[in-house]
């Protein structure tokens, strides 16, 4: 068993020293995990050094700030709220995007513009970006990516019961028993963007190994409708991050992101490392960035364990 690490291609933004990333066992993809602010790290990453981005970024910008995480721990106030319990199980808190003010929304758009502008030179031509969002704020992500020069290539729709929406008017449930303030959300959009190719897709594939999406098989293309239930049970125990994405979803996305299975995938907001684990499980190379030291340490422990899980991967598109 040999630890295999990628060459480090960026600084850690002047934050705490790196903890060692670990990977072992043949068949798993090598990865690098960096404790850093993603924007700082991207500023020092070399041009044309990455081949795809698969990420679930912070939304609301404030939900991962120390004060909001403290309110979440105390179960009181702030952007996190506990969804109603309807089946005897206590639900985990979710960020409440409806509390975003006009200036939060301006800040959100600026954040995604800064991100897109930094990603653009670091990615090779033809590189795809898969970015998780939600129906309330997706426009604040998509428009800045296009403004930064990316092509919008569609949206991946993940069918999932999110526990958002569907509630009756607050404090007037009985009076308006037949009314929901918003639809109950049953899907999660992932924006799909591409840095323009150099010439034809076939030329770009030869030169940069990017430009298309990896098929499920020679008969079956990757499709934009996926079914993936929230991460539960063993995954949550290994990686108790409030926004943990399931391996069943992440493995489908990282696989599609590298059309020839070559190159490096970046997750600039890796949290507990579900993207990195998915890439490693499939033998793909990846780099994860996380600015919160607790989550960074969690990822260092969780990634090898998540990568080893046996998960139903490529057949959940046709349920
Ligand atoms: C939505 S979570 C990602 C969770 C991840 N999908 C998982 O399965 O664990 C976003 C993460 O981005 C981190 N983050 C927020 N701003 C960041 C920044 N500027 N640089 C790096 N990480 C950041 C947060 O601490 C949080 O862990």
Describe this structure in words.
With 319 residues, this protein is an alpha/beta fold. It has one domain (31-308): 3-Layer(aba) Sandwich (Rossmann fold), CATH 3.40.50.150. The protein contains nine helices and ten strands. It has helices spanning 38-44, 66-74, 102-122, 139-147, 201-208, 233-238, 247-257, 274-281, 293-308; strands at residues 31-35, 50-55, 80-81, 94-95, 123-132, 151-159, 187-194, 225-227, 264-267, 285-290. The chain has an eight-stranded mixed β-sheet with strand order 1-10-9-2-5-7-6-8. A two-stranded antiparallel ribbon has the order 3-4. Helix 8 links the parallel strand 9 and strand 10. Helix 1 runs parallel beside helix 3 (102-122), helix 3 packs across helix 4 and helix 8 packs parallel to helix 9. The chain is globular, with a radius of gyration of 19 Å. It binds S-adenosylmethionine. Residues 37-39, 56, 58, 64, 241, 243-245, 269, 271-272, 274, 289-292, 295 line the site of S-adenosylmethionine.
Record keyword descriptors for this entry.
two-stranded antiparallel sheet, alpha/beta, 8-stranded mixed β-sheet, Rossmann fold, 10 strands, single chain, 319 residues, 30% helix, 9 helices, binds S-adenosylmethionine, disordered N terminus
């Amino acid at each position: 068993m040999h630890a295999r690490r990628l060459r480090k291609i960026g600084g850690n933004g002047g934050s705490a020293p790196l903890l060692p990333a670990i990977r072992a066992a043949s068949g798993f993809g090598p990865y690098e995990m960096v404790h850093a602010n993603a924007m700082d790290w991207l500023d020092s990453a070399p041009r044309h050094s990455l081949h795809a981005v698969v990420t679930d970024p912070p939304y609301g910008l404030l939900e991962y700030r120390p004060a909001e995480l403290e309110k979440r721990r105390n179960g009181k106030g702030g952007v996190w709220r506990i969804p109603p319990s309807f089946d005897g199980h206590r639900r985990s808190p979710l960020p409440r995007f409806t509390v975003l003010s006009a200036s939060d929304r301006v800040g959100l758009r600026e954040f995604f513009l800064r991100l897109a502008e930094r990603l653009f030179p670091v990615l090779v031509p033809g590189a795809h970006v898969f970015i998780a969002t939600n129906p309330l704020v997706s426009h604040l992500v998509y428009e800045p990516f296009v403004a930064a020069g990316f092509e919008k290539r569609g949206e991946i729709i993940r069918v999932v019961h999110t526990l958002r929406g569907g509630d009756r008017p607050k404090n007037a449930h009985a009076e308006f028993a037949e009314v929901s303030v918003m639809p109950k959300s049953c899907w999660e959009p992932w924006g799909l963007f591409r840095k323009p190719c150099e010439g034809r897709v076939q030329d770009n594939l030869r030169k940069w190994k990017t430009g298309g999406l990896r098929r499920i098989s020679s008969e079956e293309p990757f499709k934009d409708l996926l079914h993936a239930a929230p991460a539960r049970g063993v995954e949550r125990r290994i990686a108790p991050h409030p926004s943990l994405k399931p391996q069943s979803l992440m493995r489908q996305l990282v696989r599609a992101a590298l059309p020839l299975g070559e190159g490096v995938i970046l997750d600039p907001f890796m949290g507990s490392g579900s993207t990195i684990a998915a890439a490693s499980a499939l033998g793909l190379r990846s780099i994860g960035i996380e600015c919160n030291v607790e989550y960074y340490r969690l990822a260092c422990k969780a990634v090898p364990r998540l990568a080893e899980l046996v998960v139903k991967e490529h057949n959940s598109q046709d349920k």
